[in-house]
Amino acid sequence: MASPPHTSKTLKLERYNSYLRRLHSTKVLNASSKLIFRVTLLIALVLILFFTLNYPPLSDKNPNHAHLHHHSFLSAALFTSSAGGDAWEKQVRHSSTPKKPNGLSVLVTGAAGFVGSHCSIALKKRGDGVLGLDNFNSYYDPSLKRARQKLLLKNQVFIVEGDLNDASLLTKLFDVVPFTHILHLAAQAGVRYAMQNPQSYVSSNIAGFINLLEVAKTANPQPAIVWASSSSVYGLNTQVPFSELDRTDQPASLYAATKKAGEEIAHTYNHIYGLSLTGLRFFTVYGPWGRPDMAYFFFTKDILQGKPIDVYQTQDKKQVARDFTYIDDVVKGCLGALDTAEKSTGSGGKKKGPAQLRVYNLGNTSPVPVGNLVSILEGLLRTKARKHVIKMPRNGDVPYTHANVTLAYRDFGYKPTTDLATGLRKFVKWYVDYYGIQTRVKKDSDINSEHPEESA
């Protein structure tokens, strides 16, 4: 019987060839995967750049102002706090260099905010150097802040986008510019929001303020600092009008407590490091480019939309009243405080002598019941409000504010001149123009014909 054919060599050869084929396939697959990954990454980066430069953020709910963001994002891409470099430093220096002899060089924190934007433009128009700092947070619609930013850019005021708690950024700014003054207006605002997000108040109003003072104390020269306190520090005080000599140790809200803490912190840095510090207690500031979380602003919005508005009464059914202060008057007060601020006395973080420490009320001196505010808006908007009168909730709001401004008048001539009806007329005109609203709002000519004494 013949023996079977020997197949061992053939089997080994087939197994070896199979191994080579698998090895080749694996190499091809790995190479293809790397290529696909790199191509995908490149496409993703291109798409991100494209959408960043050509589309506004989702938070912008105002289609009339979508065009603002193209410029804003280009600015952010070129000049954000993380960019640095020669172009960034050139922009910072150009904005902060005064145009008039002996002009101020002012760092304005919260420059894209309501009071900050108005003060920045006023300073720039009179020839001072101004550099803004703002983090553009979303406490209210950031598109309004971006619109203010565009307005500031038209007035040659550059805003660095960054946070007060970024010590390296603040240090960099002081390395680039020897600021003579700081106008510190950045803060977490709002009494009621503190019940939802208390940590934001501690982070901004206390930690952020301390961080700014820490950098300022080591600057050479040390800047003089004017900063925003609040009428809220008077808290449960019942003695009216509110005077700077009244007690302020009974805050009614966390917001008020953080502002009172700021006043004590200012005292400490003045005492130890010789920083010149002036605190300004603002009383219910209102006007064009205002804050959407303020009553006059959302009352206007809701009245135009036919929505009901809540009008508060005190627990004993008395009207809530506020010392409404028009923005132009507050700006004059801020600039007066800057102009009369004495130089800080420290050097290298060490105090050389006593330094100026001040606090002032900036109010209108004429409290107006909130019901009267609503009546004025009804007349301007030619629309009846759907009022819902309710008792004031225990959320930190106080029933009454009234400023005594004797000290501010004595020291820098502060004298408010705008009554509520005039100020609201200017606000409503801005509001309908900004939001492109077609309404039956009274025109200036209509109002002047009814009140000819106001047209002078």
From TrEMBL:
Domain NAD-dependent epimerase/dehydratase: 106-343
Location of the protein in the cell: Golgi apparatus, Golgi stack membrane
Gene Ontology terms, MF aspect: UDP-glucuronate 4-epimerase activity
Coiled coil: none
Source superkingdom: Eukaryota
Positions of transmembrane segments: 35-55
Keywords noted in UniProt: Isomerase, Membrane, NAD, Transmembrane, Transmembrane helix
Cellular component terms per the entry's GO annotation: Golgi cisterna membrane
Keyword field contains Transmembrane: yes
Pfam family, one: Epimerase
Membrane topology field: Multi-pass membrane protein
Catalysed reactions, semicolon-separated: UDP-alpha-D-glucuronate = UDP-alpha-D-galacturonate
EC annotation from Swiss-Prot or TrEMBL: 5.1.3.6
UniProt keyword Metal-binding present: no
Subunit structure: Homodimer.
Family per similarity comment: Belongs to the NAD(P)-dependent epimerase/dehydratase family.
The protein's name in its UniProt record: UDP-glucuronate 4-epimerase
Lineage: Eukaryota, Viridiplantae, Streptophyta, Embryophyta, Tracheophyta
